[in-house]
């Protein structure tokens, strides 16, 4: 009983000898790879290795739009009335802006 069972090794050797000269066509290999069940790791790798093509023009327009929105101050879009009064050699600029604020009544 000290001998190990070598039956599996013998079968493997016989199968390798019989199939040594055989080759499969490319169509058969493609069919085998196409119809086999993929593992979760292979599915994740296929998903992560997918190539994404993004057109350059919309990306540039989007980046410029975001850049313009972050650079231009909000006050530039508010409507303001300005009056300039000349007093002697100086000017006084009076701006009226329309701001909505919550006023609390103190009684």
Describe the protein in words.
A hairpin with a 2-residue loop joins strand 1 (80-87) and strand 2 (90-97). The protein is of the alpha+beta class and 107 residues long. The termini are far apart. The relative contact order is 0.05. The radius of gyration is 39 Å and the shape is rod-shaped. The longest helix has 16 residues, at 56-71. It has one domain. The protein has a two-stranded antiparallel ribbon with strand order 1-2. 44% of the residues lie in helices and 15% in strands. It has four helices and two strands. It has helices at residues 7-18, 26-35, 40-48, 56-71; strands spanning 80-87, 90-97.
How would you summarize what this structure contains?
This protein is of the alpha+beta class and 107 residues long.
Major sheet: 2 strands, antiparallel
Task: State mean pLDDT (0 to 100 scale).
Answer: 82
**Which percent bin holds the helix content?**
40-55%
Per the principal axes of the C-alpha atoms, what is the gross shape?
rod-shaped
The number of helical runs is 4
Give the distance, in angstroms, between the N- and C-terminal Cα atoms.
105 Å
State the order of secondary-structure elements, H for helix, E for strand. Answer: HHHHEE
Please count the beta strands (DSSP E, at least 2 residues each): 2
Which stretches of 5+ consecutive residues score pLDDT under 50? none
Give the class from helix and strand content and strand pairing: alpha+beta
Strand order of the largest sheet: 1-2
Number of domains: 1
Assess the beta-strand content as a share of residues.
Answer: 5-15%
Q: Compute the CA-based radius of gyration.
A: 39 Å
């Amino acid at each position: 009983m000290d001998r190990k069972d070598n039956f599996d090794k013998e079968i493997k050797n016989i199968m390798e000898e019989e199939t040594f000269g055989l080759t499969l066509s490319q169509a058969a290999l493609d069919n085998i790879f196409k119809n086999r069940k993929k593992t979760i790791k292979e599915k994740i790798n296929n998903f992560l290795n997918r190539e994404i093509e993004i057109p350059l023009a919309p990306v540039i327009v989007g980046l410029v739009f975001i850049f313009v929105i972050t650079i231009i101050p909000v006050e530039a879009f508010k409507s303001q009335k300005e009056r300039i009064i000349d007093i002697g050699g100086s000017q006084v600029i009076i701006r009226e802006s329309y701001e909505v604020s919550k006023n609390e009544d103190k009684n």
